[in-house]
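Kindly review this protein for my students:
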Amino acid sequence: MAVVERSGMKYGRILLKLSGEALMGREDFGIDPSVVVSIAQEIVTLREWGVEIAVVVGGGNIFRGAAAAARGMDRATADYMGMLATVMNGLALQDAIEKAGVQTRVMTGIEMDKVAEPFIRRRAERHLEKGRVVLLVSGTGNPYFTTDTAAALRAVELHTDVLLKATKVEGVYERDPISDPAARKFSSLTYMDALNMGVQVMDSTALSLLKDNALPIVVFNLVPGNIERVVRGEAIGTVIGPNVRAVLAGVE
């Protein structure tokens, strides 16, 4: 694949956090191939422009460990099942990205050498440097940690410039925008603001880890074109990070 260097990219190395639900599209369960292809094409476009890309994917479209634990299943068992669901999603993304002409590596926190490489930080960094998209699955490999925490950990380990959290909403709001349509979106937040608010888009363990390492987060809506827009530095979504203040969008 020929890489065309493009100016105007704000971030050179990113970690993209995708929820499993993002892969469902309009389905109630599982994977919508057309959605996977659409996401893969955006990733491929960024790679062609020289951006180094790691992706952490969740598994909620197939199995949610926390929900199963709430219904009485052993929490560790439920979490391991959820980790296996993320592997299936990672393989689906791998297939779509490679069919579009970009090399990938699936790396996992749980050893399963028939389908994925074990996550080794220095090896993952070499893959990124060689232009491969690195798909990080099975969370941290440990129960009791969310894939948000895995994304924060891998982003710090791989020295990414930013963590991009793709969601179904436009960013972080002062109140739940579903129950209160008048709620306004924040264009920026400090880490402490986000922690004190108990924002639902990312758990406190992940936020604390990112705060301790001063790694910014951009929370944005996963609609076609938005990943590219964020990497270019367009003012969409909500930025959580150092050297910012709490600002409601359109309000100074």
